[in-house]
Design a protein that fits this description.
By secondary structure, the protein is mostly helical. It has one domain. It is built from two helices and no strands. It starts with 5 loop residues before the first helix and ends with a helix.
């Protein structure tokens, strides 16, 4: 009884399109996509930052970090 058929989903989609219009839905999709992209980017940067904290503190590691920061 509580399951949704394809017709329920289709009617719901038509109502949403009529209420908000395609331009607002397109902008909403862009905003959500941009937020997800920024979230993934920040997670990747955080992983790189924590990975550098786990490296051994030796002279060789410090020289490598210094050389890589000079190249960038």
């Amino acid at each position: 009884m509580a399951g949704l058929s394809i017709w329920h989903v289709l009617i719901f989609a038509i109502v949403v399109i009529l209420l908000f219009g395609t331009s607002k839905l397109k902008n909403l999709g862009k905003d959500v996509g941009g937020a997800v992209k920024d979230f993934k980017k920040s997670m990747k940067e955080e992983d790189e930052a924590t990975a550098s904290l786990n490296e051994p503190r030796t002279i060789d590691a410090q020289v490598k970090n210094t050389e890589s920061s000079v190249k960038n």
